[in-house]
Amino acid sequence: MTDPTPAVRDRVLSLPDAELPAYVYDLTALRAHAATVRAALPERVELYYAAKANPEPEILGALGPYVEGYEVSSGGELAHVAEAVPGRPLAFGGPGKTPAEVRAALELGVDRFHVESGYELRMLAELARTCVPGRRVAVLVRVNLPVADGALAGSSLAMGGRPTPFGLDPAQAVEAVRALADGTYPQLEPRGVHAHLASGLEAMEQLAVAESVVSWATGLGVPLAEVNVGGGMAVDYTEPECRFDWTGYGDGLARLTEAHPELTLRIEPGRALTAYCGWYATEVLDVKRSHGKEFAVVRGGTHHLRTPATKGHDQPCSVLPVDSWPHPWPRAAAEGDQVTLAGQLCTPKDVLARRVPAPGLRAGDRVVFSLAGAYAWNISHHDFLMHPRPGFHFLAPSTEGL
Ligand SMILES: Cc1ncc(COP(=O)(O)O)c(C=O)c1O
Question: Of 100, 131, 167, 350, most Cβ neighbours within 10 A?
Answer without folding.
Answer: 167
